[in-house]
What we know:
Layout: E1 4-9, E2 12-25, E3 52-57, E4 61-67, E5 75-84, H1 88-95, H2 107-114, E6 130-133, E7 142-145, E8 159-162
Antiparallel strand pairs: 1-2, 1-6, 2-5, 2-8, 3-4, 4-5, 7-8
The chain binds a DNA duplex through residues 22, 24, 31-33, 36, 39-41, 55-61, 63, 65, 78, 80, 106-109, 118, 147-150.
Amino acid sequence: MGMYIVYRSPGGIMSARIVEVEAYIGRDDPACHAAAGPTRRNRVMFGPPGFSYIYFIYGMYHCLNFVTEAEGFPAAVLLRAAEPCDGLETMLSNSGKRQVEGLLGGPGKFCRAFGLTRAQNGLDLTGDQLFLEDRGEARPTVARSPRVGVTRAARRQWRFQVAGPPKASGG
DNA sequence: CAGACGATGCACT
DNA sequence: GTGCATCGTCTGG
């Protein structure tokens, strides 16, 4: 949280400050895509940490995750929202919008703005194409709550949001 | 191969 | 608050 996601896309470089994520942890988490075991879709979750997991949902949206935990233990962090930083024009163009409001305010909207699809599934996040960047900010205060769109295991408060007002101009 | 449904977003009431 | 677009993925036969 408070770190930046950077993507050197064919259409230009983009970056955004991460302000909302959710955790999906292991076979025991009924909301985790990997709960039923490895499939073609969730395969990358069972691999080593530090890779992108991007899936297609509702016939029209993509969602970006960061694979975490040791190889063989499927877990990932879903990126739910961010604040635009670099490459605003590219994001707007990708989204077909002219307004910044809500541009990255949801996992589907984020991927649309960044131009991420399954073509970027399984990327090495320690590479130079799609990666996280620590820009030296102080750790933001984080609030936790139940995950969105998850009915099972609602007791697990694994949604995390930066508290307080937006830092930059975006949002 | 057919059928069900989803870690969403948007229009509308 | 409710309805629904739209299709990949998974399940079961």
